Amino acid sequence: MSSLTSLKMLSVEEIDRILDDAERLYEVRHVGSRNGHVIANLFFEASTRTKCSFEMAQKQLGIDTLHFDVATSSVNKGEGLYDTAKTLESIGCDAFIIRHGETRYYEQLKGLTVPIINAGDGSGDHPTQSLLDLLTIRQEFGLFRGLKVVIVGDILHSRVAHSNIEVLERFGAEVYVSGPEEWIDEDIPREKRLTIDEAVEIADVVMLLRIQLERHDGEMLSNPDDYLQTYGLTMEREKRMKPHGIIMHPAPVNRGVEIDSSLVECERSRIFKQMNNGVAVRKAVLVRALHQKEAPVHVV
Ligand code: CP
Fold this sequence. Notes:
The chain is about 35% helix and about 15% strand. By secondary structure, the chain is of the alpha/beta class. The C terminus is likely disordered. The site of phosphoric acid mono(formamide)ester (CP) has 9 residues, from α2. It comes from Bacillus selenitireducens (strain ATCC 700615 / DSM 15326 / MLS10). Pathway: Pyrimidine metabolism; UMP biosynthesis via de novo pathway; (S)-dihydroorotate from bicarbonate: step 2/3.
């Protein structure tokens, strides 16, 4: 059984195989053929896309989901992450999908024997988001080598940025960042930093990030429109993008802050395509984790 806590644990060949599996599993439905696997989705931080697309992937594969609500669980009596997960493993869960605010929370869970799929750890990693981003870019361009990808915004606090910078560079993409200096990790070299005006003119992919205010120690954004004009994707900047350039954003989107609201569903935007790809990618990750035989019972 295979955990997935970070894409760093996989080679590019293994990642490519997951993307290929996602393409093959796109339309696969194992309707009514539950194979006895039960998965618990433990979300200690809010989520719409990751939680619901994992649930959709589980339904489409015929896997049972154990309902677990942090708010009404014994976490509120002080039970820790390890004891919670060990309890659910003891009663029969075959795998866990976990999102937690603590970076590298999964290091506490070494005593478990079932796979853990990381659905986001603090500012650390978000491997399934990176996989769906890679699939979206591969579908668009067919390759990664030489592509110019600019990741824009709150790099420092973003697990999506950290996962994507590492894996896109391994695949041969030229990755740049853009955003307020204080939100860019110190170890990112000067030559990889662009202004948003430089970024839009060279990028094949403009990947915008949500400002992670919940990780900013109480700091507030004083004027969202100032942010959009100084660092964000305005309608004027979109017009200066390369003809084939695409816009991505992991969402949720702060409309009118990272991006002009009218661009969220513009022709270049792949934001909803990313979400759609999320289900296929998560099916591939679940199949890998459970070592299911991929025998589509019913294909629609
Ligand atoms: N992109 C993403 O992780 O969205 P959610 O926080 O809604 O899961």
